[in-house]
Structure to design on (649 residues):
């Protein structure tokens, strides 16, 4: 095999391989390459199995991801949400934990609200609704409390 | 009875010794990468042999694996009415497990056995000794480029396998069986995490190293003529398959 | 030039070399004779440092190759060339590339110089132009040996070790190879150590002959002296008497 064509073929192979790797890493693995958007915080009583990387949706459209989950000193779940640039969330926004279908993945649903002041990057969403625990709901129903 | 136990002990000791020798072999080969002469051309040649020449078989097996996953996944998921999860089922199986493992097995079958035979023949026809008498380190001339090329080629082949597999699953699930294209991809994007992708890459790096190490080691220490070469080749395929699956379990339990 | 002192090596409990003492004189052709499987190749491999002895020394102008490491060992090896029994040509390279190989790997000569030197060496061992682009598996045994000789000569070594250079060749080719060895020896003045059991041809080319038997050198001398040697083992070997007389 000629020197030049060997190098060409190997170069092509490496290029295709790298493109595939990049596709997997960026498209599926969500490595953020450009612009990290901005972060807002929210605290919940109970997030019931929500995981880092879960989507954040407004009106069913994905606008960001859960970036970190911690437990605060007073035993609340402290979430860091990473929202895309240009997504506007107001001070009276409500964040709630929902499930897709009955057994589906958990996600964060945002109702962006409509007051006059936007939540700045790093700000906090005050109104939150915890996850609905099916077991709790069912037991309440059985004991006639609902 | 005593003899049996003694036999067991002897076997264990020789196994441990062999494992130790392989590690030293690997360390020496990797160390020689950093010592001149660097031999970039040999590495490119080996990339062509291990990577480029394996890509057709990887395309073929990747496509079929993805298509089978699409088919099986569809009929299983339909029972629960969640065909929408097909994309994530296909992508997760590929990225986490099937991509790295099947790619490694294909590469060891295609390139690993050939490398053992090549080095083994160089050993029994004294070509390795000839290099040595010319004051050229045969480890550096023959072994190092193959190990480095394997380390580079296997992850790239795995990535190609995964992407082709995902599109194979798309072909069966979306085009033939009518799952919606949107839910195929959005389900996939949501359920695959960067840990899965990174874990898959780490796996394929480890597998690439393992396959090439076994292939070169078995070839390098071939003895006793043509029969020795055939035995070494068989051992390479069996041992690398066992090691790949063993590593897979260990790495999976480590990552997931 | 090369002095071997008390060289011993045991394989699987069998003493293949059992205290070898031998001196190989500079610029001479020394031939080691002995029966097949007596350890002649093993001795050569110890001399160039491919194998390590259990005991003893191989002194190359006072430097012990059995103890040398790293750059010292490399420098010592570069004074040698080794002609393997089956040539040990690289079968992925053509004849030309095989002969050019040591220059391409070990020197920074310009390509034109490498080509001209390679052609010169191929001509020296009487190989024609058509052979240049063939691969080793297309060559006859005699041709392989000649290519291997060219590859050894191109390294311009001080010492060439020949491991059975004519085994398996027909008589005309045997004479050709021996003739080439004498001719190149006269031209380049290298020290030659040849392992062979080709009696009587080797008496025609050797300056000194040593006989290896049961891991020891049992006779050493000029070809005439060896032929007059009274030791019965030597006489049996030279006369080619049937072997069942031995235990």
């Amino acid at each position: 095999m000629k020197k030049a064509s060997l190098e060409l073929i190997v170069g092509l192979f490496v290029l295709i391989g790298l493109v595939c790797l990049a596709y997997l890493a960026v498209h599926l693995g969500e490595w953020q390459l450009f612009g990290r958007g901005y972060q807002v915080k929210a605290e919940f009583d109970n997030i019931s199995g929500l995981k880092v990387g879960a989507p954040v949706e407004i009106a069913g459209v994905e606008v960001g991801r859960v970036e970190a989950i911690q437990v605060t000193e007073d035993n609340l779940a402290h979430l860091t949400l990473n929202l895309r640039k240009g997504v506007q969330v107001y001070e009276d926004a409500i964040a709630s934990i929902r499930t897709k279908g009955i057994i589906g993945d958990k996600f964060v649903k945002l109702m962006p609200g409509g007051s006059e002041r936007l939540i700045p990057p790093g700000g906090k969403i005050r109104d939150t609704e915890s996850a609905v625990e099916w077991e709790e709901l069912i037991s309440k129903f059985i004991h006639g409390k609902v | 009875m005593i003899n049996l136990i003694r036999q067991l002990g002897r076997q264990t000791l020789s196994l441990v010794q062999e494992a130790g020798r392989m590690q030293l072999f690997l360390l020496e080969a990797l160390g020689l990468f950093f010592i001149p002469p660097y031999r970039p051309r040999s590495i490119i040649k080996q990339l062509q042999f291990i990577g480029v020449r394996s890509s057709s078989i990887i395309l073929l097996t990747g496509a079929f694996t993805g298509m089978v996953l699409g088919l099986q996944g569809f009929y299983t998921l339909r029972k629960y009415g969640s065909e929408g999860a097909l994309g994530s089922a296909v992508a997760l199986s590929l990225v986490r497990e099937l991509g790295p493992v099947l790619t490694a097995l294909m590469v060891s079958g295609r390139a690993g056995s050939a490398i053992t035979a090549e080095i083994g023949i160089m050993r029994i026809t004294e070509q390795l000794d000839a290099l040595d008498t010319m004051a050229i380190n045969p480890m550096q001339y023959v072994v190092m480029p193959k190990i480095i090329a394997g380390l580079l080629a296997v992850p790239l082949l795995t990535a190609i396998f995964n992407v082709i597999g995902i599109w194979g699953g798309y072909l069966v699930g979306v085009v033939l069986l009518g799952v919606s294209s949107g839910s195929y991809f959005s389900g996939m994007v949501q359920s695959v995490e960067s840990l899965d992708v990174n874990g898959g890459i780490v796996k394929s790096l480890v597998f690439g190293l393992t396959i090439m190490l076994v292939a070169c080691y078995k070839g390098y220490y071939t003895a006793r003529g043509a029969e020795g070469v055939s035995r070494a080749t068989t051992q390479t395929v069996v041992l690398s398959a066992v090691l790949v699956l063993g590593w897979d379990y260990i790495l999976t339990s480590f990552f997931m | 030039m090369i002095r071997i002192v008390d060289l011993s090596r045991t394989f699987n409990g069998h003493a293949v070399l059992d205290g070898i003492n031998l001196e190989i004189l500079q610029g001479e052709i020394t031939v080691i004779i002995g029966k097949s499987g007596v350890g002649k190749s093993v001795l050569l491999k110890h001399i160039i440092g491919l194998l390590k002895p259990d005991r003893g020394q191989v002194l190359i102008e006072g430097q012990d190759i059995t103890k040398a490491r790293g750059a010292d060992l490399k420098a010592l090896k570069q004074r040698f060339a080794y002609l393997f029994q089956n040539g040990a040509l690289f079968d992925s390279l053509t004849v030309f590339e095989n002969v050019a190989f040591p220059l391409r790997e070990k020197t920074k000569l310009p390509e034109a110089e490498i080509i001209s030197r390679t052609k010169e060496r191929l001509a020296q061992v009487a190989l024609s132009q058509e052979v240049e682009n063939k691969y080793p598996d297309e060559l006859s045994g005699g041709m392989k040996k000649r290519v291997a000789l060219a590859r050894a000569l191109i390294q311009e070594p001080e010492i060439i070790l020949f491991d059975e250079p004519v085994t398996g060749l027909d008589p005309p080719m045997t004479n050709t190879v021996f003739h080439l060895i004498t001719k190149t020896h006269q031209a380049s003045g290298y020290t030659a150590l040849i392992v062979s059991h080709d009696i009587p041809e080797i008496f025609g080319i050797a300056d000194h002959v040593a006989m290896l038997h049961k891991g020891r050198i049992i006779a050493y001398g000029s070809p005439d002296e060896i032929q007059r040697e009274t030791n019965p083992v030597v006489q049996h070997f030279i006369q080619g008497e049937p072997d069942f007389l031995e235990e």
